[in-house]
Task: inverse folding
């Protein structure tokens, strides 16, 4: 028996895909951040695309190579690239070079209240908003991630063997505390309430420190490396990628120790590769290795809707505008979706 | 679904002055119509400047997977992940290691990290050896010996500076350490790039095509810490359970001394050939189709490493033969 491929059942576009704008850029989407009601997305060819509702997206050539990292600094976008440049870019498209490290990559960037940081190799560079020259913070090994706490007082730097937490003392001198755990630590984040510090490791595990007493523990059981995680609804949950479910660890009350996580399931056997919070709700956007994206309420069973159907390429960026009206989705093959969330 | 194309990665090793930089310059400047990225170490010889050259710092860390010798190159995971995000697709990636570095953590990185393994594959370890100085370097430095032991291809360079009979002596010395490497004799690393890059030396299928020289290794050696090789052949089928028990335990307990293993196995009651290859404790094994009709079934096994004679390998292998 032969199959007529034209008669083959076709997957319908989701309503979000029907009303949104889908692009096939053909270059990996490496990062995306929200700036007010704009979304800036970075790509593997050094371009940035800025999306906003009611306007055509704007494309800027910012870096010569891959945009490795991106952060929001007020109304500006900060980017680091494999061309060694650390740039500040306005929503209008003005590009300002903060510094350039030549052949060394800018691996991570972060900002808080006008103070900027980036890392290149083993060194973190910190630009106080009132000073021109950066302060160098040195580490023994290459930096895996950077994060400020919610108030911008502490800067966590993950590396091999643990995390270094930097803080300015009363005389404005940098002091560091080390939180050690053997192995390579990548993405790092403070919990929004400032009580915990979490890293994802090279092994399929997360490490967490309770900062008041430095008690540390592991969150494990993942089938693959945890590349993406986010705190949800302030510090209610830590939602994580790395399994075929979105694994959501409870962080309210006494924290996750001795408690079981909520596993938000998806159809099929694809790994969750990207997690983005739905602001102020106990809800998450989860991007999967096949390119599909879902919105789920963590505490309600069977309350998952599909936003984007599969594209065949791992979801590598999701960002929602600050007014919660629209989202951007991107994957490793450069398929993007920009759509409003609410029915008119 | 996801494009499973994996970019081949060649690990280039060899002592300082052997000719690695000469080879890298050739790879970057010759008109070959291919796009190669080269990851160099910061202590390397200078003189290469190109957009596709990336500085690395050879940072090694231990995995927390209970395997004591499982060290991997963290910087490689970072750089390879970054290179995979590029707009232009690479035809191959070459990783230079410093003359004194142990190539094992580099090789292990490709077994251990899932993202690296999905998007890239270890193609071959290429060792550049200085025909003039190799013999003395092997005597004086563990690393020189190890680089020969790990190599899939050995470029015996600077042969124009050595008499023919001395080339034979050096070749024999290499063979004693590593019976399965392909030796290419060159001056100024002048071998065709197709004999160095994109060889697929780590694929199990390839092991069936390039059969190692199963010479009976001699057992004389002056130092106990010499790197040597031992090989075994059996025409009698092996018992799978016995073999798995013996071999698993062997790699677990002696994996630090066993640098590389390769083998083709004939198990009793199985129609397929089993092929495997390993670096230290990490191993890749799989059935590889039926035995060809025109070939006798037999099991062949090669070990390269230190202190092999203390591991009772012959007795262990003999005991795996089926009743």
Result:
């Amino acid at each position: 028996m032969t199959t007529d491929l034209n008669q083959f059942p076709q997957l319908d576009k989701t309503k979000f895909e029907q009303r949104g704008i889908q692009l096939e850029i053909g270059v990996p989407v490496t990062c995306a951040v929200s700036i007010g009601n704009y979304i800036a997305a970075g790509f593997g060819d050094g371009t940035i695309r800025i999306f906003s509702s009611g306007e055509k997206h704007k494309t800027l050539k910012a870096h010569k190579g891959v945009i490795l990292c991106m952060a929001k600094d007020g109304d500006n976008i900060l980017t680091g690239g494999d061309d060694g440049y650390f740039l500040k870019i306005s929503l209008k498209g003005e590009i300002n070079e903060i510094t350039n490290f030549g052949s060394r990559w800018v691996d991570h960037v972060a900002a808080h209240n006008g103070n900027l940081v980036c890392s290149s190799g083993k060194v973190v560079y910190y630009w106080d908003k009132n000073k021109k020259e950066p302060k160098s913070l040195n580490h023994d090994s290459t930096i895996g991630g950077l994060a400020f706490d919610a108030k911008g007082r502490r800067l966590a730097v993950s590396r091999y063997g643990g995390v270094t937490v930097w803080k300015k003392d009363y005389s404005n001198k940098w002091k560091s505390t080390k939180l050690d755990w053997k192995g390579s630590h990548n993405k790092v984040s403070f919990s929004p309430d400032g009580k915990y510090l979490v890293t994802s490791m090279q092994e399929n595990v997360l490490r967490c420190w309770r900062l008041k007493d430095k008690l540390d523990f592991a969150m494990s059981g993942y089938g693959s490396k945890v590349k993406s995680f986010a705190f949800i609804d302030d510090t209610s949950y830590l939602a994580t990628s790395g399994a075929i479910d979105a694994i959501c660890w409870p962080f309210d009350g006494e924290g996750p120790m001795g408690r079981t996580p909520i596993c938000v399931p998806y159809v099929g056997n694809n790994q969750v590769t990207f997690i983005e919070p739905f602001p102020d709700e106990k809800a998450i956007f989860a991007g999967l290795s096949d390119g599909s994206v879902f919105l789920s309420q963590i505490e309600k069973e069977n309350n998952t809707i599909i936003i984007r159907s599969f594209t065949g390429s791992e979801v590598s960026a999701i960002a929602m505008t600050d007014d919660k009206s629209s989202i951007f989705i991107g994957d490793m093959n450069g398929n993007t979706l920009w759509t409003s969330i609410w029915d008119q | 679904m996801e494009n499973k194309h994996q970019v081949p990665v060649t690990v280039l090793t060899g002592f300082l002055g052997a000719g690695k930089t000469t080879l890298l310059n050739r790879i970057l400047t010759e008109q070959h119509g291919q796009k190669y990225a080269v990851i160099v170490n910061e202590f390397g010889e200078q003189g290469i400047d190109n957009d596709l050259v990336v500085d690395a710092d050879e940072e090694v860390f231990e995995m927390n997977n209970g395997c004591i010798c499982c060290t991997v190159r963290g910087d490689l995971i970072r750089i390879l992940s970054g290179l995979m995000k590029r707009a232009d697709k690479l035809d191959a990636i070459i990783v230079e290691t410093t003359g004194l570095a142990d190539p094992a953590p580099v090789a292990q990185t490709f077994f251990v990290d899932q993202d690296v393994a999905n998007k890239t594959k270890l193609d071959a370890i290429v060792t550049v050896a200085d025909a003039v100085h190799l013999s003395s370097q092997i005597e004086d430095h563990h690393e020189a010996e190890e680089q020969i032991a790990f190599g899939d291809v050995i470029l015996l360079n600077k042969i124009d500076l050595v008499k023919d009979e001395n080339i034979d002596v050096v070749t024999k010395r290499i063979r004693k350490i590593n019976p399965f490497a392909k030796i290419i004799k060159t001056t100024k690393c002048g071998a065709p790039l197709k004999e160095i890059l994109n060889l697929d030396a780590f694929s199990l299928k390839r092991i069936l095509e390039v059969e190692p020289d199963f010479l009976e290794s001699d057992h004389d050696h002056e130092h106990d810490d010499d790197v040597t090789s031992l090989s075994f052949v059996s025409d009698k089928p092996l018992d799978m359970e016995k073999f798995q028990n013996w071999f698993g335990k062997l790699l677990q307990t002696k994996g630090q001394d066993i640098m590389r293993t390769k083998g083709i196995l004939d198990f009793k009651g199985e129609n397929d050939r089993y092929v495997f290859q390993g670096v230290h404790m990490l191993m890749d094994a799989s059935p590889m189709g039926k035995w060809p009709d025109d070939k006798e079934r037999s099991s062949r096994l090669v070990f390269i490493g230190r202190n092999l004679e203390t591991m009772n390998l012959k007795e262990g292998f003999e005991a795996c033969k089926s009743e």
The interface with chain A takes residues 1-3, 51, 53-55, 57, 59, 61-65, 72, 74-75, 77-79, 82, 84-87, 113-115 of chain B (CB under 8 Å). The CA atoms of residues 170 and 313 of chain B lie 27 Å apart.
